[in-house]
């Protein structure tokens, strides 16, 4: 009888030991599996693709990069801030931001881009006769015309900017060439172009553009006056057409995309 009791006790101890070992093994397995599961879940982390900022093109881009070592960061700035960060465009920035005349600040319009901006260098402005620059500073309408004539709607790099299009001022602008050899209105050379801003492409040019020297429009529109004259020739003399009012200029912010 004592032998049977001893044997029963041994079996009970073995059973409890086996259960304890099994439970411990199960807990260890769970402990090991949890970090593995967390790691497996965290591994497929998606990283945003890196957008490469292309080099600007033009004969003086080396000087531009030296003066703006962090030029790639301009791609994260609206065009007003980007122009302000380019030392060689400081006079043009003053012209568009109220620095030359407090009544002329078109930066808010430009920052509603996309725009292509032809920014004359400081040397280009220095080449203007002093009297002409003084006249621009004193005439808000003329300065506004000048500012908007250097801008057209679009977001074009050096390989795509060529062509003739209307500017925000209304008159057209003609761009010839591509890459590092671009001419504007057959008079101004791009010294460094395709500089990326958040909502614009900036082209530094060596000459201030004159709206009065704009090329003839590629597709002239029939004015209201011409229409009235045509109607007058087709109606009896007693029924002369009333002279139509002059067309009002297209507001800069609503000018068509070229």
TrEMBL record:
GO CC, alphabetical: extracellular matrix; extracellular space
Entry keyword set: Membrane, Transmembrane, Transmembrane helix
Composition-biased stretches (Low complexity): 219-245
One annotated GO molecular function: cell adhesion molecule binding
Positions of region (Disordered): 215-258
Transmembrane segments: 21-42
GO biological process: cell adhesion; extracellular matrix organization
Ranges for domain FAS1: 76-209
Keyword Membrane among UniProt keywords: yes
Superkingdom of this protein's organism: Bacteria
Name recorded for this polypeptide: Fasciclin
Organism: Mycolicibacterium pulveris (Mycobacterium pulveris)
Lineage: Bacteria, Bacillati, Actinomycetota, Actinomycetes, Mycobacteriales
